[in-house]
Design a protein that fits this description.
- The structure is a single chain.
- The chain has 302 residues and is α+β, with helices and mostly antiparallel strands.
- Helix content is 57%, strand content 16%.
- The chain is elongated.
- β2 and β3 form a beta hairpin.
- The chain has seven helices and five strands, in the order ααβαββαβααβα.
- Among the domains are: 118 residues, no CATH class; 83 residues.
Length: 302
């Protein structure tokens, strides 16, 4: 019995690894419960019935595949120059509620400096929201929109979750059959790991579906810059007199600063140099005075 349980556990581990890699087949030895769980999840994710999810028999659908609903995530950014930012913010908040959405976040400066709003709007009314923004009392300076098709991603996530749920059902059956403590712990460990993967994938699925249901629109409201009036220069004698006096005072300050620097820094140096020159000149004259004067030669008469 223990060998049989370990063999089935190994088979389920391999099947779980295959489903994590994106495989649509299930190596579940308990096919009825596994197939039912996989078909329910695939139908919820938008996949058509009739796909072979058990990997052990022909398709069980009626032959007519249900149409797959296309899921698209819409996002956009709009910048509008408005005369009154506060009034524009109130208008945006009002029409977002009318469209069945809400303001997911906002950021506004002090006074009338500008504001940024993050709007969550039903995807079916995304274009209507853009029209309402264009109708604001202002000018649209930036408008950008993007669309991302996530249909295949949702189908893949649904299939992976279905495979993991089928494995979870099989692990629970093994857990009921296990008799030894080692077998119970091994199966419970794998069961907890599979449950963790399911919850993680379900969170991703819900996040993507939420973004597809509610589009995100970032709106920047910018105040219109007031025109700068041209400044005409006029001649004023008083201004010219003040400028001349300021220049004169500046020149006086410069001369005074120069005298201070000269008196403190250069004057002592110049005095020392002058003293050295005087001492050298005095010594030279003293030496010359002590030298004998040569006698004058008699010049014979011609």
């Amino acid at each position: 019995m223990r060998r049989c349980i370990m063999l089935l556990l190994s088979t389920l581990v391999i099947a779980g690894c295959s489903s994590s890699a994106g495989s649509g087949a299930s190596a579940d030895p308990f096919e009825p419960a596994a197939s039912a769980a996989m078909e329910d999840r695939a139908a919820d994710a938008g996949s058509g019935p009739g796909e072979d999810t058990s990997g052990a028999g022909p398709a069980s659908g009626e032959g007519n595949a249900a149409p797959i609903e296309q899921r698209i995530i819409k996002t956009g950014e709009v910048s509008v120059e408005v005369a009154n930012v506060s009034a524009a913010v109130g208008s945006v908040r009002a029409f977002v509620l009318e469209l069945g959405g809400y303001v997911g976040g906002s950021q506004a400066g002090s006074g009338d400096e500008g504001a940024t709003l993050t709007l969550r709007i039903p995807a079916s009314r995304f274009d209507e929201a853009l029209e309402r923004l264009r109708a604001l009392d202002g000018e649209v300076v930036v408008e950008a929109t993007r669309e991302s098709d996530v249909t295949r991603q949702l189908i893949d996530l649904g299939a992976r979750i279905a495979n993991l749920e089928a494995s979870e059902v099989s692990y629970r059956v093994l857990l009921e059959r296990a008799e030894r403590i080692d077998d119970v712990l091994a199966v419970q460990s794998r069961l907890d790991a599979v449950r963790g993967e399911i919850e993680q994938l379900e969170a991703q699925l819900q996040e993507i579906e939420g973004d597809a249901d509610l589009s995100t629109l970032t709106v920047s409201l910018i105040p219109i810059a007031e025109p700068i009036a041209a400044v005409t220069e006029t001649w004023d004698p008083g201004v010219q007199l003040d400028g001349a006096l300021a220049s004169l005072v500046g020149i006086g300050h410069g001369l005074l600063n120069a005298l201070i620097w000269f008196g403190i820094v250069w004057l002592p140096v110049l005095l020392v140099l002058a003293l050295l020159v005087l001492l050298a000149l005095r010594g030279f004259l003293e030496v010359r005075r002590r030298l004998p004067i040569p006698a004058a030669r008699d010049v014979p008469p011609a």
